[in-house]
Amino acid sequence: MSTEVTSKRLTVRDIAGRKGGTPVVMLTAYTTPMARMLDPYVDVLLVGDSLGMVLYGLDTTLGVSLDMMIAHGQAVMRGSSKACVIIDMPFGSYQESPEQAFRNAARILCETGAAGVKLEGGVEMAETIAFLTRRGIPVLAHIGLKPQLVHSLGGFRAQGRTEAEIAAILADGRAVAEAGAFAVVVEGTVEPVARALTEDLAIPTIGIGASPHCDGQVLVSEDILGLFGTFTPKFVKRYAELSGLVEEAAKAYADEVRARTFPGPEHCFKSNWSRTADK
Ligand code: KIV
């Protein structure tokens, strides 16, 4: 019998067990090369439906399909071996009924091998979350600012500024935790409310534009890398400015092709063949 210890992915139980402990590090990934680069450093790779805006140039996440999420989920699974991979359920794939949600979440897990799904919603999604979790589908809930509700909300704006909003967010947190979510993303929520939620809930809160007191943090990778310039939310910190490097590289390549200095001899396959004059 082999005694070799093989590396294993983090599980949703590992993530749930981080409540109040070492913060959970989560970043988005949509492709194999990005997943490969991030995998050693994060606990969770989120295949977010933000890919609709970041990769496909859509104005909102509403145009993202289940097939898109599955294809990108497969790519991220191929590029990672350690992180727990969670895949967003896109708009329209789970709101109709718990049965619809189960069918589509099962497709996501079966066709990608990911560990769980994320869906937006609090009290109104509690029944669906309970239906999924009781049937073996781990759910990461998403409350506070819910980007799939952009039209009802009238834009992407921070939540928790009125007594009614605060009560709703705290009720949403309690509802998804009771329904069995293993953790909850808290997006765009004023700091004291996100902190209160973290104190109230027995499951980890993962903040994005929320509070440093959350049990973990998530950001969109292209935002922190300076690769997505269309719109930078206040809560994003840029850790690199890669789009400038991409533009410099593209310009240098274009200049060299036009000057015929690329490709050089070192980029060509050698052979002794040469065209002989026609007899
Ligand atoms: O779609 C996404 O990337 C997300 C994160 C920003 C939390 O939901």
UniProtKB/TrEMBL annotation:
Keywords of the record: Methyltransferase, Transferase
The EC number(s) this enzyme carries: 2.1.2.11
Entries under SUPFAM superfamilies matching the protein: Phosphoenolpyruvate/pyruvate domain (SSF51621)
UniProt name for this protein: 3-methyl-2-oxobutanoate hydroxymethyltransferase
UniProt entry tagged with the keyword Transferase: yes
Protein's pathway: Cofactor biosynthesis; (R)-pantothenate biosynthesis; (R)-pantoate from 3-methyl-2-oxobutanoate: step 1/2
GO terms of molecular function: 3-methyl-2-oxobutanoate hydroxymethyltransferase activity; magnesium ion binding; methyltransferase activity
Organism of origin: mine drainage metagenome
InterPro entries: Pantoate_hydroxy_MeTrfase, Pyrv/PenolPyrv_kinase-like_dom, Pyrv_kinase-like_dom_sf
GO biological process: methylation; pantothenate biosynthetic process
